[in-house]
Design brief:
Blueprint (H helix, E strand, L loop, with lengths): L8 E4 L6 E9 L3 H4 L4 E4 L5 E2 L9 E7 L6 E10 L10 E8 L1 H13 L3 E2 L4 H8 L5 H12 L3 H11 L2 H26 L7 H23 L1 H8 L2 E7 L5 H9 L17 E7 L2 E7 L9 H16 L2 E6 L5 H14 L5 E6 L10 H10 L4 E4 L8 H14 L12 H22 L4 H19 L5 H9 L6
Parallel strand pairs: 1-8, 9-11, 9-12, 12-13, 13-14
Antiparallel strand pairs: 1-2, 2-7, 3-4, 3-5, 5-6, 6-7, 10-11
Bound molecules: guanosine-5'-triphosphate (GTP) and magnesium ion.
Magnesium ion binds next to helix 9.
Length: 474
């Protein structure tokens, strides 16, 4: 999986390209000594010192030279970390140099010549995991912190990187291991191999508690998915109802073309924005109409396809939308949207007055499961904030998040969901009167799954797949 602590590796940990400064990290025992030939610590009293003589957790100004020619490459700042109190748990040195691609390239070249190899993707974090500095789920959350592009996603990743998921799965695992020990004792001590009812009751209690706890964690992925894959919101309605105007107003810029010509939007148009910390993809669609125009008809097809992908579909009604159109179109929306998706009706152009069939439209909307009706004016901004709040409320209401724990990683979700499925089988087996040894062997399979979250039962192949997705330098 990873090299030994004596094998030194290095990488640039800051982004490619030009920057004010860049950081190059070296990890492994003897990291400081390995660069003594090239890095000369500049003493304020005059003269030079060695990096290997630098006390841990201090930093120093230094001259970094080509070890073969003695030519200075850059003036740098060296920070030294000692094992085990470093990010990887092994000795580490950080070189803060000027951030030009040439400086970084020349320093890396020198480090390679000094016998320090290039780090693999995520090798610093993989080493931290191998050294027991963090659980696998925490290590993966570090990557999610780096990749996060919304405040809610960052918060979720921070909570997991601090060990919240590992703590919850550890507790489940400990309870289940204790339960298995209890089963073993009961089976061993019972002469006729039929442990007493008391043990079965206790086993049932622990199993059901573990199922309930896993369910809570797994359910949090409903929110987590909206963070990692972004929440999907689409706008539909008849042509000219104001869909593009509303998308532009929420996105905060003119993404979609707006005209008073019916059928302006012919393709689906996306705008990514942040709504109260939740990353959202807004999708504008072609107005729904029975058109003989081929382009328009294809646009309508695409619009309908969008319903199934959406977490929320906003159906826009304008004062001239007929009750019949609403009835037909909401019927189609309902047939296509996911069961957990939300349908909200917006009465747009409220500045021009209300729709004459408003009461009837509300009635139809309720029949098709619309959760709310909001009068708005996309052009003057009235109640657009309410639309944004409805989007955030959908996120808030989607699933539990005990103690703020929201799993955002699909691997965590799939692994825990499969552990949950196995545990449910164990509950069924127990209820059906199967022997406790059978129940115990099913539980062992569930524990193999939960172990893939903490890293206790992770295979070398899985660890490689996980860390290969990391960036070089982390
Ligand atoms: N008075 C008023 N006019 C609006 C409002 N919203 C949109 N409009 C106008 O209605 C017309 C159509 O707006 P769009 O946003 O292009 O409508 P659309 O639903 O995207 O139309 P298609 O792309 O053709 O399906 C434009 O002239 C807008 O300025 C509103 O709230 N009040
Ligand atoms: Mg449009």
């Amino acid at each position: 999986m990873t090299g030994s602590a004596d094998e030194l590796f290095c990488a640039v940990s800051t982004p490619a390209g030009t920057s004010g400064i860049a950081v190059i990290r070296i990890s492994g025992n003897g990291a400081a000594k390995s660069i003594d030939r090239s890095v000369k610590i500049i003493r304020s009293s005059g003269g030079y010192g060695k990096v290997s003589e630098l006390p841990g957790y201090t930093c120093c100004f230094a001259d970094l030279r080509d070890p073969d020619t003695g030519v200075s490459v850059d003036k740098v700042v060296i920070t030294r970390f000692e094992a085990p109190f470093s990010y990887t748990g092994d000795e580490m040195v950080e070189i803060s140099c000027h951030g030009s691609p040439e400086v970084k390239k020349e320093i890396l070249d020198i480090l390679y010549r000094l016998g320090i190899r290039a780090a693999g993707p995520g090798e610093f974090t993989k080493t931290a995991f191998m050294n027991g500095k963090m659980s696998l789920s925490s290590a993966e959350a570090v990557m999610d912190i780096i990749a996060s592009d919304s405040s809610e996603e960052l918060r979720a990743a921070n909570i997991i990187s601090e060990g919240a998921l590992a703590k919850r799965t550890d507790k489940i695992e400990n309870d289940l291991y204790e339960m298995m020990a209890m089963i073993e004792m009961a089976v061993d001590f019972d002469d006729d191999d039929s442990p007493d009812d008391d043990t079965r009751v206790k086993v049932s209690g622990i199993l059901n508690d573990s199922v309930a706890e896993l369910e809570r964690i797994v359910l949090s992925y409903r929110k987590g998915r909206m963070l990692s894959e972004k929440m999907k919101v689409s706008f539909t309605g008849i042509p000219n109802s104001g869909k593009s105007t509303l998308l532009n107003s929420i996105a905060g810029y003119d993404r979609s073309i707006v005209t008073d010509i019916s059928g302006t939007t012919t393709d689906t148009i996306e705008a990514v924005c942040d709504i109260y910390g939740v990353p959202v993809i807004l999708t504008d669609t072609a107005g729904i109409t029975k058109s003989s125009d081929r382009i328009e008809a294809l646009g309508v097809e695409r619009a309908i396809r969008e319903y199934g992908k959406s977490d929320i579909v906003f159906y826009l009604v304008s004062p001239d939308t007929t009750v019949k159109q609403v009835s037909d179109q909401l019927h189609d929306v309902r047939a296509k949207i996911r069961e957990d998706a939300e349908l909200i009706v917006l009465f747009n152009k409220s500045d021009l007055g209300s729709n004459p069939g408003e009461e009837e439209i509300r009635e139809i909307g309720r029949r098709y499961g619309a959760s709310s009706f909001i009068p708005i004016s996309a052009s003057d901004g009235t109640n657009v904030e309410e639309v944004r709040k409805a989007i955030k409320a959908h996120y808030d209401n989607a699933g539990v998040s005990d103690g703020g724990l929201v799993i955002t990683n699909r691997r965590h979700y799939e692994t825990l969901d499969s552990a949950l499925g196995i545990l449910r089988t164990a509950v069924t087996a127990l209820d059906k009167g199967e022997g406790l040894d059978v129940v115990s062997s099913i539980v062992r399979a569930a524990l193999d799954k939960t172990g893939e979250i903490s890293g206790k039962t992770v295979s070398a192949d899985l660890a490689k797949t996980i860390f290969d997705r990391f960036c070089i330098g982390k």
